[in-house]
Amino acid sequence: MGMRVSVFLVCVGAILAVGTDASVSGVDLTVIGITVVGAGAIGLLMTLLVWDPRPQVAGMERSYADPPVGRRRRLVEQRPTLDEPRAHHDPPP
To answer: Measured between alpha carbons, how far is 34 from 13 in angstroms, rounded to an integer?
Structure first.
């Protein structure tokens, strides 16, 4: 459960617990609202503390020494130099 879902659950639970005066037979909306607020709060704490810890900037180290794994192709174009004979002996224009 992400942070957005947790905040959404807390808001919906608070509305159910405090903001409604509707009555449904056999269901207490206040208890359901408090339960949903608790589930959202636990989800928010778990998201912040366990599943999404922010890395410390000072302790972060990156290494770019190894290139990506895979076969690389190298394209080299060979141009004739002035000393090499040309492939076609056409007269100059």
So the answer is: 6
Tell me if 30 is assigned to some domain: yes
Write out the chain's pLDDT in tens, 93 residues.
788 899 999 999 999 999 888 888 888 888 999 999 999 999 999 888 887 666 555 555 555 565 566 666 666 666 666 665 656 666 666
90 assigned to some structural domain: no
- 24 forms beta bridges with 27
- Structural domain boundaries enclosing 26: 3-51
SS3 category, 27: strand
Provide the whole-model pTM.
0.53
- Three-state SS for 24? strand
